[in-house]
Amino acid sequence: MLIPMADYAAGVEVANDLVSTSPTVRGAEALSGPADLAGLLAAYDVAAPVADDVEKVRFLRGEVRAVMESGTEDEAVERLALLAGHAGLAPVLRRDPSGRWRWYVPTARDAALVGEVAALVGVALLGLVRALGHDRFRACAAPGCGGVFADASRAGRRRYCMPELCGNRQNVANHRARRRAVAR
Ligand SMILES: [Zn+2]
Known about the structure:
The chain is mostly helical. It has helices spanning 9-19, 23-26, 34-40, 51-68, 73-85, 113-132, 163-183; strands at residues 2-4, 92-95, 101-106, 137-139, 148-150. The longest helix has 21 residues, at 163-183. Residues 140, 142, 145, 147, 160-162, 166 line the site of zinc ion. This is Zinc finger CGNR domain-containing protein. It comes from Actinomadura luteofluorescens.
């Protein structure tokens, strides 16, 4: 896999999607088999996952969450360097379709799938910390949600780990609160 160094947003979303599959966020395991993992990586040219990959990526998921919950920027960068280093090689320059040079981190040819995912997520989150800072790692604002996420948006106003699900949960809570206020 060739991981772009400057365009980190897509890799950050893989990290967010991965962390959001956890039972602590969903109430049940949402990374339950190779099909779930294949879905997470649909945009990437990787080998078809097998059951063993799923187990390893679940372990990686805990590491990614630890990055998002790290107390300091330096700790986050240290953890991310380890993730990126699992399968990441020295950066290379490649021309993009318009002929401009771009930095990429290639992964080792014989890398295991979990190593490729670790490198993808590690490089992307390092890019996010470099460009936007450590306070882009946040806890989900939805009531009762245990999710965490990285906000790669330009404005930096993202509040939910799964915007459609958790944003909606918040709307329902607000609606109920309003109804209670009216009934009083
Ligand atoms: Zn959430």
